[in-house]
Amino acid sequence: MMASEWSKHSVELKDIWSGYDFFKFGREKGPTATDRKTAIFLCEAVLSVAIQTNAILLVSVDSCSLAKAWGDFVADVTTKRGGKAPFNAINVGHATNYYSQSLVPWTIAYQLRLGSKRWRHNQKRISNAVESSNSKWRVNWKQLKCPPAGCSYYIITDAVNDKKNKVDLSAARTLMKNLTAAFAKSLPSIGVVTLRHNGFETGALSLSNYVRRGLPLLMLDSRDRPQVNSLEEAEAHLRDFEARLNKGGMIDNYKDSNWSFLHTVLQRIEEQKKKMSGADWEGKTEGLEIFKVLEDHVVKEKSEIEKFRQRISSDATIRMDATENLVQQAVDLIKDLEEDRQTNDMTIRTRQEIAHFNELPDPRSIDELDEILLAEIQRWNLNKGRLLQRHKIFLEHPHLFKAIKRVAKTDRFPQKNTIEDSKSCSRHGTRSTFSTSKPCA
Amino acid sequence: MTRKDLEDLQIQTIYSLVEPTPVEVNGNSMMPKLLFLTNHQCRQLDLSNLEKFTQAMDINPPPKLVINLLPSNARQMTGVCSAVDGQ
Lengths: 441, 87
Fold this sequence. Notes:
heterodimer; A: mainly alpha; 3-stranded parallel sheet; B: alpha+beta; two-stranded antiparallel ribbon
């Protein structure tokens, strides 16, 4: 298959893993039932509250399912109401992250850049910083980050550190935190999260920090769950669910849905205890107790995630009374499931992806390799080769991914697709990253 | 006047930085407002006076609630779906 054909293929696959289009309900490529119910929740619960309260919504990039679905609703509502909705959505983003999409005609990023004199004026600085931070190879750049549609306001920072000529996202992140805090000071606020919010540790860390700032958080679980009254039953359900997904070649990635499920189970257990021990009994797992337990383990700085991981794996550091122990069991359960999930992920993905890799075309030029890598990054979110590094089996695969490793990790790539440049790179210790040999089976 | 001085001056009057930007979504035209900031300006942005900020951004009608939709991703990273219909 030629590289150009793969590029076309990747556009179709993009729909699978980025935020989804609400209006594709019922179609083959539309959202699955679990995702669809989060969109229905937004439409039936959040939208009406937003209209009644003239709410301000803070939304993420459109790879977030909530932001994407919300953007679709708002565009629809705004049109029906003559161009102005009774609520406002604000997106805070980074121009460096949006850079690739700002070059794709008629994306939101493209239209905003086109319409903004200040963005256009700064585009060269942004481009330089992206290249300086990520190398000139597009495989290393953020590919699909885009502001969601339907926002009334976009606050976009250039995210450039001029002194170092590097990408620096810290300013916008701080602004987003400050904006959330500033609004929360003067107005009632609520956070909503579901499906999967970052990775296991980083997701828990982020949510824990959010709650620790005193901000209310609604965790949604949009899956159909059985009535479960104990942690043992919850574990059995989650393991059974994982196994069913595994059979279908899938893994359970929706960690926050599972946090929400366990939180509900814990509350149910507390309610049962309360009934059994009389009205004076005061449960300790009301509210977001599960996050209080996480907070015991979570360190403040993200740079200390490794310490966090060690801490939650060390039972010796845990000091709790009987009720807190119950919560700790729930946290331990999620930890155990996560370990199993990673193993399943490895097994399932390896089988499927190896089969896929064997079908990849053998690049005959640097340009073709670049096209293939771009197609793969869209399909696979291959950000800086991190995924490959984690799954070393792919690196040992004798075909394309040895090349990706070299490309993603080094800039020592031929400047031009010529024998001279290729030889020049070889002299500096880098093999030509494209070969004419057939891939090994 | 250096670029930094100019940026400082601009951020003091953020009204001047807000740009109405035409955007077309699904064939519908919208006119969102874009506040494009350099990192330096972003750090200088004073949110202690939220009223001034909302006025500058021309946020109306006055909100009574803030809803923060935190990043919630569907089937990312894997190329393998995480859920199936009915689950």
